[in-house]
Amino acid sequence: MAPRGKVTAGPMSLARGGLLVGAGASALCAAIGLIFGGVSGSVSALAAAMLVLVFFLTGQIVEGLTLRMADWNGLTITVACFVLRVGLFGAALWAAASTPAITQAWSNVWFAAGALACLIGWQAGLVMAHARVRVPVYDRGYQAPAGWDQ
User: Fold this and answer.
1) How many CB atoms neighbour CB 63 within 10 A?
2) Distances 140 to 5, 18, 20, 30, 62 between C-alpha atoms, Å
3) What is the predicted pLDDT for the residue at 14?
4) Residues 6+ positions from 124 with CB-CB distance below 8 Å
5) Torsion over CA of 100, 104, 106 and 109, rounded to 10 degrees?
6) Rounded CA gap, 21 and 38, in Å?
7) CB-hemisphere CA count at 13 Å for 6?
């Protein structure tokens, strides 16, 4: 039984499940992309998977650290990090889409497939990894109602 009032996992162990399953799904998508889309399909799927993994991994690390705060400060930091990551992710996609050398070399279909495969793999792995984690803000100890023994 996990101790009450303590987070039972570190920041990296929270991300380990998502990282492993997401990387596996991405590798499978890249292999299929290589078969059906050639090198361009495989590289496009891997590039998308790397962007998605970096996006989610950085967020999971911040979330793992802020879980120990269990107050509004942790929530504020998590949301601010999310907004920052979305902005950086959008800027990276915009820069890549406006560079002719990159847009001619990648396959839009396999880029989307790689991102989707990584996203689904990451979320599935994260659900499995979080199944047994205790978080104090959600898992509070039982307190009897006031006056129950009178």
Assistant:
1) 17
2) 7, 26, 30, 43, 22
3) 67
4) 21
5) 110
6) 24
7) 7
Dig out the tokens for 8 from the structure. Answer: 């039972």
Query: How far apart (Å, rounded) are the C-alpha atoms in residues 29 and 42?
Result: 8
Residue 54, SS3? helix
At 95-137, the pLDDT tens digits run 988 899 888 888 989 999 999 999 999 999 988 887 777 665 5
d(CA 75, CA 53): 22
92, 22 in Cβ contact below 8 A?
no
Identity of the residue numbered 36: F
- pTM score: 0.75
What are the structure tokens assigned to 4, written together? 């009450």
Give the containing element (helix H, strand E) for 3.
Answer: none
Distances (CA, A) of 3 to 31, 66, 97, 98: 43, 19, 49, 52
